[in-house]
Design goal:
Helix content: 40-55%
Strand content: under 5%
Order of helices and strands: HHHH
Number of strands: 0
Bound molecules: iron/sulfur cluster
Number of helices: 4
Structural class: mainly alpha
Radius of gyration: 14 Å
Shape: globular
Largest sheet: none
């Protein structure tokens, strides 16, 4: 049996349930994990991937997972690693709610 490789081959094990409903299951993994240093191409890949994320039914769960785990690479929940670092910093600065 041959298993098809997808972008979620980058995801942690065991697989997360919400991944089965991800809009990017059949997308080119290179869109979500572009090769760095090719700025113009990376921007185009980010735009394409973000459009997929905008239509994804599990975007909130994906982004929450990436923020909680500190996922350092790739586009998750429609955010780049730099955007997630800023979001995590804001979460840590926000006062805790009861
Ligand atoms: S939000 Fe984006 S990266 Fe996350 S599962 Fe959906 S399409 Fe994939």
């Amino acid at each position: 049996m041959t298993l098809k490789r997808t972008r979620h081959d980058h995801a942690p094990r065991p697989p997360l349930r919400w991944l089965t409903r991800a809009a990017c299951q059949d997308a080119d993994p290179g869109l979500f994990f572009p090769i760095t240093g090719e700025t113009a191409q990376q921007g185009q890949a980010d735009d394409q991937a973000r459009r997929i994320c905008q239509a994804c039914p599990v975007q909130p769960a994906c982004l929450d997972w990436a923020l909680r785990t500190g996922e350092p690479d790739g586009l998750w929940g429609g955010t780049t690693p730099a955007e997630r670092r800023r979001l995590r910093a804001r979460r840590q600065q926000a006062p805790a709610t009861a």
